[in-house]
Design goal:
733 residues, alpha/beta, seven-stranded antiparallel β-sheet, 31 helices, 38% helix, elongated, disordered N terminus
Length: 733
């Protein structure tokens, strides 16, 4: 039977159990048992009958359809247009177990599990403003359709529409070679909400200039973190069930095996964003709560940098360039992982990369492709290691050799021997500073005379965060930092130092971008004579300082004086060592009186309760409203922070990470509408629910606020019960 315009709505008050008894599917005794079970289990009566084994969902649906003279439909092969799906909200569909099918004769045809639920019909008419035609479908068909056409809670939240950034992400797909039957996982990974979430994360990470993206499963949630300017920053948390589909999406793009979840894997893919192509290097490892993914974002522009762009100061730059121009020898760059060593080596190669020079590299992995250079990826499984690769390279008549990293004595010995036989060699070492590179080579078993003859120069480096130029202000240093400033850098203590106050451009951190601080150790005749088996790095450093060597800490302070970074940031990555004290670079210690000013006496120790209340940010320029809201919300055990305008609220939203925001419509500096739009435009704040609280009760203002991204709209005057109920609903959503 097809729905018709004369279809009668079931009479009000009739229940599904009674209807099934009338249809002869169950008897009164079975219905009584089911109703008794329903009192304790709070399930729908149809589900209880299915679990009792009385009937299956198809039989129940057919019985209801026949008894109520309604059409029976199955949905497994039925395709529903997105325009029709958008007519009914996901929440309504899930609550009442129904799905819209089509619009016919100006009526919306809806398949329902329980056509006797008149509240569902009332809500449907109110939401859609369309006349409703009812059909009956099996429960499992409805559930499958909801899963197919509506995103899971938490997956779509905040990603209902594509932003400009994620729309600009173009994935550069590789040819798939995996032919295993993993159709379901692959289909889930290709669903629009999953694609939008993955694209949003990638676009947001590139926009914020993150170097790494971490997708970390926890017991009940998935945490997304970025490494921005060398510092890990939590961006968002989402529901745990999102994890499998998100990981599958990334693994498929990376040409990784999605069926393997208990072994580490590596992969890579490319994407285009704002006209630039980025290489994404992906690593997965199994953890207690599932697979953890780390994505390294490689910007090809970093491989095109020149020596002058790295940030070397005058004397250090001269030594560095002279060493690169040498016909043979070895140049080493030292520092921890993530200190920019590879970028420095690529800059060296760019300087000498001409058609008359044969350059060969062996790397793990090959991070950037450079035109005109032969690059070799090590592959231990195939017998290609740094040592074996280097031996092969030397038979290729190279002029310049670059080794990604010296990890063992064999590689070190071959590299230094090559540097003595007419080759210019570049490589990296993991040491804390430049002088320690010499002792590290000796520890690896390289003969000291070989080091002295072949080594030209060692550069040590770190990356520090740069001051945001949009919010740069003068900075009065504390006594602790003043006491550590060297007295030999052009009256450093009398100079003006700077910091970032924090603004929207820098996500209220005060920092934007990174720059290098360096130390360059030239291997002079005096240093060569010191390279003996028992020499220490501190002795080499002391001797080098006498010859003009400047530790990277001093290079960093010099850049802080120039207003490029802060002294705190320099001391974070490169604190002054004892050698500086011995050379009297540091001023006298703080007096006792100064210490008393900076270090207040310790107060009594208070026990902190292990409580983590929900945090709510209230933004309103009316202090009376703020006080009222604080009293109302704190009485419900919420933690409340407040802002007097939209600009301050935007800053606190990034710093405090609230669970919910209540904002006024009209505020100085930045209004509520602009605040909502800015919050919804950024991934880190997009999923925070927002309530617009205002005296404006006109419909057009409410519609505009909802369209901007507000989750609720409440009018003044304040009603405590109403605001508490709205807050609780959004927090529990």
């Amino acid at each position: 039977m097809k729905p018709t315009e004369t279809q009668k709505v079931p009479r009000r008050g009739k229940r599904i159990g009674e209807c099934l008894v009338e249809a002869g599917l169950i008897d009164h005794e079975t219905l009584a048992k089911a109703l008794e079970i329903q009192k304790s289990q709070k399930k729908k009566i149809g589900q209880i009958l299915i679990e009792m084994g009385v009937a299956d969902d198809v039989t129940i649906a057919k019985a209801l359809a026949e008894q109520l003279k309604l059409p029976f439909v199955t949905l497994k092969k039925k395709k529903i247009s997105n325009e029709v799906i958008k007519l009914v909200p996901a929440e309504l569909s899930e609550n009442y177990l129904l799905i819209p099918l089509k619009v016919e004769n100006r009526k919306l045809v809806v398949a329902m599990v329980n056509p006797l639920d008149l509240y569902a019909l009332d809500d449907l008419r109110f939401v859609t403003n369309i006349a409703i035609q009812i059909a009956v479908a099996p429960q499992q068909d409805i559930l499958d359709a909801i899963e197919r056409y509506y995103p899971k809670p938490g997956l779509e939240k905040g990603f209902e529409t594509e932003t400009d950034e994620e729309h600009g992400v173009e994935l550069i797909r590789r040819v798939e070679t995996d032919e295993k039957d993993l159709l379901r996982l692959m289909q889930i990974a290709e669903l629009p909400p999953v694609v939008r979430l993955a694209n949003s994360i990638l676009a947001d990470a590139i926009k914020l200039k993150a170097s790494d993206v971490h997708i970390e499963p926890q017991k009940t949630a998935v945490i997304i973190r970025y490494r921005i300017d060398g510092i890990m920053r939590e961006i968002m948390q989402t529901d745990k069930h999102v994890h499998a589909s998100l990981v599958s999406r990334i693994k498929i793009l990376s040409n990784m095996d999605i069926s393997i979840r208990r072994k580490p894997q590596d992969g890579r893919f490319q994407l285009k964003f704002s006209g630039d192509i980025y290489d994404m290097r992906v690593s997965s490892i199994p953890t207690s709560y599932g697979e953890k993914l780390t994505l390294r974002i490689l910007n090809p522009k970093a491989a095109a940098m020149g020596i002058g762009e790295l940030g070397f100061s005058g004397r250090e730059l001269e030594i560095f360039e002279n060493s690169i121009d040498a016909p043979q020898g070895i140049i080493l760059v030292t520092g921890p992982t993530g200190s920019g060593k590879s970028s420095t080596l690529y800059a060296c190669l760019n300087r000498i990369n001409t058609s008359s020079v044969n350059i060969v590299t062996v790397e793990d992995p090959v991070e950037f492709d450079i035109k005109g250079i032969s690059q070799i990826q090590i592959n231990p499984a195939a017998g290609v290691t740094f040592a074996s690769g280097l031996r092969s390279i030397l038979r290729q008549d190279p002029d310049v050799v670059m080794i990604g990293e010296i990890r063992d004595g064999e590689t070190a010995s071959i590299a230094l021997q090559a540097a003595q036989t007419g080759h210019l060699v570049f490589s990296t070492l993991h040491t804390n500073d430049a002088p320690a590179a010499i002792t590290r080579l000796i520890d690896l078993g390289v003969e000291p005379f070989l080091i002295a003859d072949a080594l030209l120069m060692v550069a040590g480096q770190r990356l520090v965060r740069g001051i945001c130029q949009h919010c740069k202000i003068p900075h009065d240093l504390s006594f602790q930092f003043i006491s550590k400033l060297p007295i030999d850098i052009n009256g450093a203590k009398e100079k003006t130092f700077w910091k970032g106050a924090g603004c929207e451009k820098c996500q209220y951190t005060g920092y934007s971008g990174r720059l290098g601080i360096f130390e360059v150790l030239k291997i002079t005749p005096a240093i060569k004579r010191m390279i003996v088996p028992d020499v220490s790095a501190s002795k080499i450093r002391t001797a080098a300082i006498k010859e003009g060597f400047r530790p990277m800490c001093l290079d960093g302070i010099s850049k802080a004086i120039q207003g490029l970074t802060t002294v705190e940031e320099v001391f974070r990555v490169s604190p002054p060592g004892p050698e500086l004290l011995e050379q009297q670079y540091i001023s006298t210690p703080i007096s006792r009186e100064e210490k008393l000013v900076e270090e207040p006496p310790a107060g009594p120790s208070f026990a902190i309760k292990n409580v983590n209340p929900k945090k709510i940010l209230v933004a309103d320029d009316n202090q009376i409203i703020i006080k009222l809201l604080v009293n109302i919300l704190e009485s419900e055990n919420y933690h409340v922070v407040s802002a007097a305008d939209g600009l301050e609220a935007l800053k606190l939203a990034h710093q405090e990470k609230p669970d919910l925001i209540i904002t006024d419509y009209l505020m100085p500096e930045m209004g509520g509408m602009e605040l909502i739009k800015k919050l919804k435009s950024q991934l880190s704040t997009r999923v925070i629910p927002i309530i617009m609280l205002t005296a404006k009760d006109e419909v057009e203002f409410e519609v505009a606020a909802i369209d901007a991204g507000a989750d609720d709209y409440v009018t003044k005057p304040l009603d405590a019960r109403r605001i508490v109920a709205r807050v609780a609903r959004l927090l529990n959503r």
